[in-house]
Amino acid sequence: MPPSANEPLPGQVKPLSTWRQHSNIPTGSSAVWVYPSEQMFYNAMKRKGWTPSEDDMAAVVAIHNAVNERAWREILRWEAIKGPAEGGRPQDYSPKARLLNLLGYKLPFDRHDWIVDRCGQEVRYVIDFYNAAPRLDMPVAMHLDVRPALDSFGWVTRLGMHCAL
Question: Any idea what job this protein has (predicted)?
Answer without folding.
Answer: Lyase that catalyzes the covalent linking of the heme group to the cytochrome C apoprotein to produce the mature functional cytochrome.
